[in-house]
Design goal:
Subcellular location: Membrane
Organism: Deinococcus cellulosilyticus (strain DSM 18568 / NBRC 106333 / KACC 11606 / 5516J-15)
Helix content: over 70%
Number of domains: 1
Radius of gyration: 17 Å
InterPro entries: DoxX
Strand content: under 5%
Largest sheet: none
Order of helices and strands: HHHHH
Number of helices: 5
Protein name: DoxX family protein
Structural class: mainly alpha
Pfam families: DoxX_2
Length: 140
């Protein structure tokens, strides 16, 4: 006879795998773009991201740092199982980054950028919901 832990809902293996795939893909994207904004000269970045010449350099670097931290936060706490709830909070932070990016692009008349920002925000929101509510990873 086995005892079930009633306080912990059963989640499917498929959901965990889906969340991990989303986490890895989103983390790879944010780590790459974050490193790019941190390491490349603004003049070189301007060829790929025209908006960087319209804002102070420290803002470009701060955004890069936020993206890098968010990307690492999607993986490291969950993989190490040390404070794994931080993965969900990192995802929420990335939702905020993408919502703010959408507003920024709208103010610049770059509406074509907004759908991609919102899709990325939605993926991050699914990760946050999954790791904070539906399929949290247990700490060590």
């Amino acid at each position: 006879m086995t005892t079930q832990n009633i306080s912990r809902p059963q989640t499917s293996k498929a959901l965990h795998i889906t969340l991990w795939v989303l986490q890895i893909l989103l983390a790879a994207m944010f780590v790459m773009t974050g490193l790019m904004k941190l390491a490349m000269p603004v003049s070189q970045l301007a060829g790929q991201l025209p908006w960087v010449t319209s804002v102070p350099e420290f803002l470009v670097r701060f955004i890069g740092l936020a993206e890098l931290a968010g990307g690492l936060g999607l993986i490291l706490p969950a993989a190490s199982r040390i404070q794994p709830r931080l993965t969900g909070f990192a995802a929420l932070g990335l939702v905020l980054v993408m919502v703010l990016a959408s507003g920024f692009h709208l103010t610049r008349g770059e509406g074509m950028m907004v759908p991609m920002n919102l899709i990325i925000a939605a993926i991050a929101a699914v990760i946050a919901w999954g790791r904070l509510v539906k399929a949290p990873i247990q700490a060590r």
